[in-house]
Each structure stands twice: as C-alpha cells, then as structure tokens.
Amino acid sequence: MRVMSGRQIERFFKLNPDLAECYAGDDFWERRAIAARYLSQNKLLQMLDDPDEVVRRVLAYRLPVDELEALMHDDDREVRITVADRISLDELERMVNDEDYLVRQTVAKRLKPGRLFRMITDTDREVRKTVAKRLPLESLGLMINDRATEIRRVVAEYINPDELSPLLMDKHWHVRLIACERAPLSMLCHLGQETDEDVLACISKRIESETE
C-alpha cells in the first residue's frame, strides 16, 4: 500500500484487517495509526514506544486497562487524558499531579469523592470547580474560602445550609445572594450591613414569606 490518504488507508484496512500487522512498523505515521485500530492487543503492546502521538492515542483507547500504566506519563496530553478516562480507579490517583489541567480535571471527574482532598487546592480553577461539585458535603467547608468567586458560588449552592454563615459575608454579591437563598432564616436577621439591592430583596422576600 502506497496511498497517503487517510480515507483510502482506512478503506483498505476495513477490507483487509488481517493485513494490519504488516503495517505496524510502516514509515508513514498515519498508516501505523490506522493499522493500530485493527491490531490484536498483543501486537499493540509492541507499539508503546511509537514516536508519533497519534499512534499512541489509538493505543490509549485500545490497550487493556491493566496495560495503560505505560502511557500514564506520555508526552502527549491527549494520550494522558484518555488514560485518565480509562485507567482503574486504584491507579487513577497517581495522576492527580499531572502538569496539564485537562488531565487533572478528568481525574477529578472520576476519582472517588472521598479521595478528592488532594485536589482541593489545585492551581486550576476549573479543576477545583469539578472537585467542589463532587466533594462529600461534610468536607465542602474546606473550600469555603477559595480565592475564586466561581468556586465559592458552587460551595454556596451545595454546602449544608447551617454552614453558610461565612458566605453571607462574602465579598462577591452573587455568592451572598445564593447563600441568602439557602441559609436558615435566623442567619438573615443579622445582615444589617448588606448593601446590594438584589441580596436585600432576597432577604426581604424570605423574611416576609417565612414569617407570615
């Protein structure tokens, strides 16, 4: 086969899957990558050191889960994302410090909630947001002072209402508004210094409706 078109290469292997092994070491990366879709898993293991990331991405999708450790620290982000999405939960925690935030976010989406503590202070806001949405409620207070407003809003939405007191004094009005919508009425009666009109309207509406 000498064609360079990915579409033609794909068509060839669909018709001749038994010939894929002949092209596992081909000089052209796209032939190797497409051939890898048709290879046996044993043959795939022999391609772990392939120099092209597209080929290794195919391996990350097709290798048995217990063989993915070899690609856990791959140079390509997409390879590591796929590994994080497929690897066993017991091995997944080893990827919480990956240098790429998208890899860590994938980890945060899959990791057992009780094992998310190591990611509470992640440097990336989107990763911490994912953590905040999945952290056990009894532990969510650990993120109540997060530096990102968006994270504190998530905390205000999910935390036990009895723990909302600090967020009623948050520096951002939207966080205070969410807190006021959920906090016990007894907490709202002591917010005499509130200045935001929307927050004040929420407080007034709740006091009026719940004291009738």
Count of DSSP strands: 0
Overall body shape: elongated
How many angstroms separate the termini?
82 Å
Average pLDDT confidence is 92
Low confidence ranges: none
Largest β sheet strand count, sense and barrel closure: none
What is the gyration radius calculated from CA atoms? 26 Å
Strand content: under 5%
- The number of helical runs is 12
Q: Helical residue percent? A: 40-55%
Structural class designation: mainly alpha
Give the helices and strands as they follow along the chain.
HHHHHHHHHHHH
Topology:
Elements: H1 6-15, H2 29-35, H3 41-45, H4 53-62, H5 77-86, H6 89-92, H7 101-110, H8 125-134, H9 149-158, H10 173-182, H11 185-188, H12 197-210
Structural notes for this entry:
With about 210 residues, the chain is mainly α. Helix content is about 50%, strand content about 0%. The longest helix has 14 residues, at about 195-210. The relative contact order is 0.05.
